[in-house]
Amino acid sequence: MTTESLRIGGYTPLTTIDYPGELAAVIFCQGCPWRCAYCHNPHLLPADTDSGVSWLQVQAHLQKRRGLLDAVVLSGGEPTAQTAIQSTAEAIKAMGFKLGLHTGGAYPSRLSSLLPLCDWVGFDLKTTPEQYDSLTATRTAGVRAWQSLEHIIESGVNHEVRITVHWHLLSRAQLQFMADLLAKRGVNNLAVQICRTSEGYARELPDNHWTDDDRRFIAEAIAPHFEQLALRA
């Protein structure tokens, strides 16, 4: 598929938070096969929603920002849900930008082909392997996600693993189990972020926030396993 067929759900021309240490633009790719209750971009879930933003418009803007922006981030939705993502990544690299990718790993084979082009990956790990299918409402999601994580680790690309926590969906024991698995696989950079229920796909989730006890638990039980750990609200 060509870059022109990329379905874009939104475009942010400048961000300092979506690619660590770099000035970046973000392309939000339309569509995701998963239906996580806490998804904070539910408008990006349908594959066929038309935002009115085209690749040609984004490309024209990026051409003007060469030398001013450091990087372009492909986010979503799930970027690897679209076959046009490979040609889009190649076009971004051809313009001289670093390439960042936000992914949940729903399509491990497509991700594996994309990784040689990536300079940084933010990987959203949802839950334990056994709980994935229930959380995402999708069969085999857990197998695909954890396989994608293996591809990222084996590629050697700079990456951050992010775990979004809602205590109604993920227990401390499960978080500890995930952290142990990540540490054993050699992950060094972990971010643990609290779910924002007011913006989620399933609005019926109860309110969710960090407590001092939560912070102590993460500092004592999770942080020692990683070179870098970020706790985000």
TrEMBL record:
<dbReference type="InterPro" id="IPR012840">
    <property type="entry name" value="NrdG2"/>
</dbReference>
<dbReference type="InterPro" id="IPR007197">
    <property type="entry name" value="rSAM"/>
</dbReference>
<keyword id="KW-0949">S-adenosyl-L-methionine</keyword>
<protein>
    <submittedName>
        <fullName>Pyruvate formate lyase activating enzyme</fullName>
    </submittedName>
</protein>
<feature type="domain" description="Radical SAM core">
    <location>
        <begin position="18"/>
        <end position="232"/>
    </location>
</feature>
<dbReference type="Pfam" id="PF04055">
    <property type="entry name" value="Radical_SAM"/>
</dbReference>
<keyword id="KW-0479">Metal-binding</keyword>
<dbReference type="InterPro" id="IPR034457">
    <property type="entry name" value="Organic_radical-activating"/>
</dbReference>
<keyword id="KW-0670">Pyruvate</keyword>
<keyword id="KW-0004">4Fe-4S</keyword>
<dbReference type="GO" id="GO:0016829">
    <property type="term" value="F:lyase activity"/>
</dbReference>
<keyword id="KW-0456">Lyase</keyword>
<dbReference type="InterPro" id="IPR013785">
    <property type="entry name" value="Aldolase_TIM"/>
</dbReference>
<keyword id="KW-0408">Iron</keyword>
<dbReference type="GO" id="GO:0051539">
    <property type="term" value="F:4 iron, 4 sulfur cluster binding"/>
</dbReference>
<dbReference type="GO" id="GO:0046872">
    <property type="term" value="F:metal ion binding"/>
</dbReference>
<keyword id="KW-0411">Iron-sulfur</keyword>
<dbReference type="InterPro" id="IPR058240">
    <property type="entry name" value="rSAM_sf"/>
</dbReference>
